[in-house]
Write a structure and sequence with these properties.
It is a single chain. Helices cover about 50% and strands about 20% of the residues. By secondary structure, the chain is α+β, with helices and mostly antiparallel strands. It has a four-stranded antiparallel β-sheet. Helix 2 crosses helix 4. The radius of gyration is 19 Å and the shape is elongated. It comes from Candidatus Coprosoma intestinipullorum. InterPro entries: Glu_permease_IIB, PTS_Glucose_EIICBA, PTS_IIB_1.
């Protein structure tokens, strides 16, 4: 009788683990998308993370797909001259790390 409960608990744990795993973001894919939405690597001069903001200096801001960045989960985009401040929250640091790995 107790074995039945143990088996049910194990099955529920496996299902919960599978659900959590599918909800995790693939930050390498997200980093590639972000580079594309920023106009490609040739358009990026410099980038850094400041708390929850991803700050990027660009050659040409007109090449940026702001709508695509918003769809990625950006909470806001501030444009000052050729600089964008993109608010990603906790994901900003992970995105920068994956972009560093791509370069």
């Amino acid at each position: 009788m107790i074995w039945q409960y143990i088996i049910i608990i194990l099955i529920l744990l496996v299902i919960a683990f599978a659900i959590l795993r599918t909800k995790r973001k693939d930050f390498k894919l997200e980093a590639n998308k972000l580079i594309e939405y920023l106009g490609g690597t040739a358009n990026i001069i410099r980038y850094e993370v400041n708390n929850s903001r991803f700050v990027v200096d660009l050659h040409n801001v007109d090449l940026v797909d702001k709508e695509g960045i918003q769809k990625m989960g950006a909470k806001g985009i501030v444009e000052i001259d050729n600089e964008l401040k993109i608010i990603f929250g906790d994901d900003a640091k992970q995105l920068k790390k994956n972009i560093d790995d791509l370069k």
